[in-house]
């Protein structure tokens, strides 16, 4: 699968991928899903699979960002 990514400079050192979700975006979506489907959390599994596919299962930085954003969302 060919994936086209565009980049825009936010500062001279930071680049952001245009149109892609961040780990935080996936975490918020997963959090909202888990809150909505507490009785059937399997319905939210696809969100986790999409995040793993986007960032890779071994991406520790993405895992950390996801975990922190999810925890923050659940505490709201």
The main sheet orders its strands as 1-2
User: What profile does the largest beta sheet have?
Assistant: 2 strands, antiparallel
**Rounded mean pLDDT score:** 81
Count the beta strands.
2
What coarse outline follows from CA principal-axis ratios? globular
Work out the count of structural domains: 1
Structural class: mainly alpha
DSSP strand content: 5-15%
Number of helices: 3
Looking at this protein, list some descriptive labels.
single chain, mainly alpha, two-stranded antiparallel ribbon, 11% strand
Short description:
This protein is mainly alpha-helical and 76 residues long.
Describe this structure in words.
With 76 residues, this protein is mainly alpha-helical. The chain has one domain (21-75). It has three helices and two strands. Helix 1 (23-36) packs antiparallel against helix 2 (45-55) and helix 1 packs across helix 3 (60-75).
What layout of secondary structure does this protein have?
Elements: E1 6-9, E2 15-18, H1 23-36, H2 45-55, H3 60-75
Antiparallel strand pairs: 1-2
Helix pairs in contact: 1-2, 1-3
């Amino acid at each position: 699968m060919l994936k086209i990514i565009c980049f825009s400079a936010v500062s001279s050192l930071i680049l952001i991928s245009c149109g892609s979700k961040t780990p935080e975006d996936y975490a918020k979506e997963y959090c909202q899903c888990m809150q909505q489907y507490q009785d059937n959390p399997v319905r939210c599994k696809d969100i986790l699979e999409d995040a793993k596919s986007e960032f890779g299962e071994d991406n520790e930085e993405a895992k950390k960002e996801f975990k922190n954003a999810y925890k923050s969302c659940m505490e709201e």
